[in-house]
What we know:
Elements: H1 3-6, H2 20-31, E1 42-47, H3 50-57, E2 71-78, H4 88-105, E3 109-110, E4 113-114, H5 119-129, E5 135-137, E6 139-144
Antiparallel strand pairs: 1-2, 2-5, 2-6, 3-6, 4-6
Amino acid sequence: MNEIFKRISVRKFEDRPVEDGKLTQIMKAAMAAPSAGNQQPWEYYIVRDREVIKKLSECSPYAGCAANAPVVIVPCLRTEGLTFPRIGQIDLSITTENILLEITSLGLGGVWLAVMPEEDRVQKVDAALGIGEKLHAFALVPVGYPAEDRPQEDRYDETRIHYIG
């Protein structure tokens, strides 16, 4: 799985649309994520509307890079009917990682911009998308063709590995 070793955070994008077929592949990868008790607490917004993307880019002090992305994927947490509600955000973390890995495999770039657990960000994104009470934004993932090319930093650190037995 080379995508793990190639994925970087991309914040600059070419002015080029992302094909529908690629977005479908990304969503298939997202929904292939494991979840506690198979509760699958996710729903997704795929945002192409320039005005909504601008609003999303203003929902966090770190989200400015989303303004020029051709697409922003917003993984959302359903809060109703969950077997393990306290694990919901962990499940959303896994699906978001799957999104980033599939983006990389398709020659696209993206970055994970945290929304949860910051309540003010959640409220701003929910309002920008018109989300109701039983669904809440988890993250923003701007997606597009990278306008930058750089290798992934090697983060392997043997001193952080501890063997027992």
